[in-house]
Amino acid sequence: MEQATHSGLKPAPLNTAVAVEMIGVHKWYGDFHVLRDINLHVTKGERIVICGPSGSGKSTLIRCINRLEEHQQGRIVVDGVELTNDVKKIDEIRRDVGMVFQHFNLFPHLTVLENLTLAPIWVRKQPRKAAEEIAMHYLQRVKIPEQAAKFPGQLSGGQQQRVAIARALCMNPKIMLFDEPTSALDPEMVKEVLDTMVELAKDGMTMLVVTHEMGFARQVANRVVFMDEGQIVEMAAPEEFFASPKHERTKLFLSQILR
Amino acid sequence: MSDIATMTDANLAFVQRAPIAPMRPPLTEAGAIGWLRKNLFSSLFNVVLTLLCALLVVWIVPPMVKFLIVDAVWDGATRIDCLPSPQRPEVGACWAFVIERLGFFTYGFYPFEERWRVDLFFALLAVGIVWLAWLNAPARGLAAINFFVVVPILSYILLLGWPAIGLPRVETTQWGGVLVTIVVAWVGIVVSLPLGILLALGRRSRLPAVRLFSVIFIEFVRGVPLITVLFMASVMLPLFVPDTWSPDKLLRALVGVALFASAYMAEVVRAGLQAMPKGQYEAAMAVGLSYWQMMRLIILPQALKITIPNIVNSYVALFKDTTLVFIVGIFDFLRAIEAARIDPQWATPVTSTTGYAFAAIFYFICCYAMSRYARYVEARLAAGDRR
To answer: Which of A19, B106, B219, B316 is 20 to 30 Å from B184 by CA-CA measure?
Structure first.
């Protein structure tokens, strides 16, 4: 069962440069307490997989990192910038944090290439030509350069998700957030997306991944975070997490999904 | 147990050995007969409906053709030509009247020797519209600037006059007919879309003051009839501003129509914004676009696209609503026909009918052209999605 773990992957870096720091973060939707006292410290180059049952707050957690959701208590510091209501700081963080969504969220009225060059041109103010070169480079990396002129609606789910990854990479992000990137895909297409993500991990990208792909977690993660009812229940290196989970809730969850 | 297992193995296992070639559909499904059966006579109810519609056509169309074309008087100089006579016991539409009064219908009381300016304005507008509306036209960015900036400025100078460059001033009280109808509709159309978009965004804004203003404006303007807005603009506004500063009567009506149309447009656009998936907003924010960039590059292009049928619907309604400006004393196309049809010089039994028929044809052509254009754009955009 044990895969050839960490093949080609660097171990978690020892330097303590902080990528994301969450201290005592709380969030409510109305009366509903979705995030409860979240403390998470992610160093640069680290790869974190977050799992847990649906409604446990894992998506909300990573969406707080680029302010798609607002937290009400606690501190979130991303790459040295603290998230406040200051729009400038939010923009600064969003420029450096790429995000990949469950439902891809490509812009359907733009071609693949335009999807990729839009933010570099308008946000980073790159010249169109340079932006297109970078975009083609990343399309090559996700192995679909031939689709550049097509519209998202003409691509398969797996291809769309790879375009979405390339779109995020074109902004040259320091941190990548993945919100269940393979959950909306047909089973045949999961692998191509996961392979792309593994490649990314090998390049040393800081990644926070919400996923139920436990094979990916074993292979790539430095740490696995298990959440339930808005709390971090258990956090451990993947070997330890899968071999000897400590918390009863974690054991139950793993027994459900690793049959 | 073992019985079932054996049976499954023996009878249910299946492997397709040769592909099945596609076949033509049965004749009843394709061709003219198939089409008729499917579309006109598919059930008893539809058969009855088809026959009723056929009857309706037979009942209406021949008399209409007879009146408008067969019995119509095409040339003639006076009312005598349109009166029933022993040679011509049945008189249809008196097109001679329309032809003779065409200048009046088009320009109103615009001075005869200056009418070329109106013609030039129509030409400018037509070129502007075609350039902007033709999706394959060259330099479409310039077309927009032309339509929204150059044409309005030129039109203003051209129509109102600029004595310094040798164009004598023509007061708006002398304007009339098609000219006024086109000016009112055009200003309403050009102003209402951008203003409506701003109001729609304002209504969804997170800033309470902006939202409150937008909601109050939209609900207030939508809550009163256009006639009330026009009365307010033409009667009440002068009470509040000093006499010397009191704006032109036509201008007041234009402002009224434009604001009224904007409020409706705002709701149309808002419906489109509402229909956009949340993921589009999130993806746009996540790549770092600012609010205005997100709206301009991601949300509005998609939202306006799905709103095109409703936008055009508003435009068609607006175009017809312009006839209401005659209530505040502005001489639009319909008012020109009203004035001409009661003119004793052309008093015949068919003058009024002919005038109204002409008005109906004019409004129909304009509105139908708009709706056809909308269909063309929709089809083009749909093709873009499939491409």
So the answer is: B219
Please tell me whether the overall predicted TM-score, pTM, comes out greater than 0.80 for this model. Answer: yes
Q: Using a CB-CB distance cutoff of 8 angstroms, which residues of chain B are in contact with residue A115?
A: none
Does the distance separating the beta carbons of A91 and B384 come in below 8 Å?
A: no
How much is the pLDDT for B186? 92
Nearest chain A residue to B298, by CA: A107
Question: Is residue B239 domain-resident?
Answer: yes
Q: What is the CATH number of the domain that holds B330?
A: 1.10.3720.10
CA distance B14 to B21: 19
Taking the Cβ of residue A75 and every Cβ of chain B, the question of whether any pair is shorter than 8 Å is answered with no
Rounded to a whole number of angstroms, the distance from the CA of A179 to the nearest CA of chain B is 12
Q: Is there a contact between A243 and A30 (Cβ–Cβ < 8 Å)?
A: no
Report chain B's C-alpha Rg in angstroms. Answer: 29
Residues of B in contact with A67 (CB under 8 A): 285
Number of Cβ pairs closer than 8 Å across A and B?
Answer: 66
Let me know whether B327 and B379 are in one domain: no
pLDDT tens digits for range A143-153: 999 999 999 99
